[in-house]
Amino acid sequence: MHVAIDASRCQGHGRCFSIASALFESDELGNGVVIADGTVGPGQEHHAHMAVANCPEGAVSIEGA
Amino acid sequence: MAHLPVADFATDFDHTDPAWVNDPYPIYEDLRARCPVAHSDRYGGAWLPVRHEDVASIASDHEHFTSRTVVVNEGRPGPQAPPAPIGVAPPITSDPPFHQLARRLLLPAFSPRAIDELEGFTRELCMQLLDGLGDVAELDAAIDYAQHIPVGVIAKMLGFPPEDGDLFRGFVHIILEGVDLPFEERIASFEPLGDYFEAQIIDHQEHPRDDLTTFLLNVEINGQRLEMRHVFGTMVLLLAAGIDTTWSAIGASIWHLARTGADRERLVAEPKLMATAIEEFLRAYAPVTMARLVKEDFEFQGRAMKKDDWVLLSFPAANRDPAVFERADEVLIDREVNRHAAFGLGVHRCVGSNLARMELRVALECFLERFPEFHVADESAVTWARGQVRGPRTLPLVVG
């Protein structure tokens, strides 16, 4: 399973990289970006789901779950 | 000046009415069941959607709504007013596509990395304020503490003298709370702010330094420096949007903790709850309601909106919508799923959200460390700001 961000929806609320800092980081403008290929490592599943559930713009998703 | 009392908020709402100022949440709840888009003839015609879905849809609809003016008042932008797309205070008063250019140039200064660098300064400021109180048994958390924090931080960012804090708060008060003044009086009241900014701009032109004002004077869009009214407008925005908002969030959070001993004790015992607690305070006590103007006559949710009608974009109401939030009217400091809209939705997401969160967290951490126990001294003495930014303006506490 891996996480993805729809850059056309992201407005830089910053919730994903605050909640799941192993999976997301901020770019220089404050928008969320996926770290590496977004693979959700062991023990990161809950953080991944919380990042999805807390994005105010619905920009974060989980694929291949 | 002061308006007549509101009889029915569904047909005559007014966000300066004492009932709204004191406690707007039962009003939103009532309207959500009855309307859910309320109307008022006040302010020359205004609408109030209270469902999250409607607020989100208007926030992202730039075809039917403009951000040209975002503070509901008795006037409308006249022919002399700065036209769209720049507006009075870019980028908050700008519409796409110009909005994106004006916003993009500000974003790096407010990115998480840039804001991290201000945390030490903010913590020092909070500790100084608390140390300055001395060994007190009572204090006013809004006046003695919360209000000084965003003023100090934004003055540092813009490179304005820190001792001008009272002046800034006066300017912001006029912009945000003088909304029911006659239009000409409201415009005239902006003059001292204009003079102050002009003096600051000249000083920064003569003595450039590493701050946001110098940055705005030098930055370019498409190879051109910003028009002076753009620089001026953005400075107005940073001051107006950076002070009362965060002051309100800090004050409302302390107010909650002062009235809810169990949450205060839990936060002291389990500091790792701070992250979810802060998001919950932002959801439940979201300080900011935005506004739009209707561009042309059109129908929204069965209501016939007219060109130049106001729309109050209530993020506080959206954040209490039970269709989106479980136990929406309860404050749960460990709420894990919290897709709140305190910083807005869509392209106008608050540019300062990272800064606001940092200030709120540091302010609460310092306050709880210094005063692990406190309660409201006199509930009837607590007063709230009127208008589109809501938070306590007097908050007398008994501490220790």
The fraction of residues in strands of chain A falls at 15-25%
The CATH architecture assignment of chain B turns out to be Orthogonal Bundle
Mean pLDDT of chain A: 97
Largest Cβ-defined interface: A-B, 18 and 23 residues
Overall number of strands of chain A: 4
By DSSP (H or I, 4+ residues per run), the number of helices of chain A equals 2
Largest sheet of chain A: 2 strands, antiparallel
Beta fraction of the residues of chain B? Answer: 5-15%
Layout of secondary structure:
The complex is a heterodimer of chains A (65) and B (400).
Chain A: E1 2-5, H1 15-19, E2 24-26, E3 32-34, H2 45-54, E4 60-63
Antiparallel strand pairs in A: 1-4, 2-3
Chain B: H1 9-12, H2 18-22, H3 25-34, E1 37-40, E2 46-49, H4 52-59, E3 65-66, H5 98-106, H6 112-116, H7 119-133, E4 138-140, H8 141-146, H9 148-158, H10 165-177, H11 183-188, H12 191-206, H13 212-218, E5 220-221, E6 224-225, H14 228-242, H15 244-259, H16 261-269, H17 274-284, E7 289-294, E8 298-300, E9 303-305, E10 310-314, H18 315-318, H19 353-370, E11 374-376, E12 383-384, E13 392-394, E14 396-399
Parallel strand pairs in B: 2-10
Antiparallel strand pairs in B: 1-2, 3-7, 4-14, 5-6, 7-10, 8-9, 11-14, 12-13
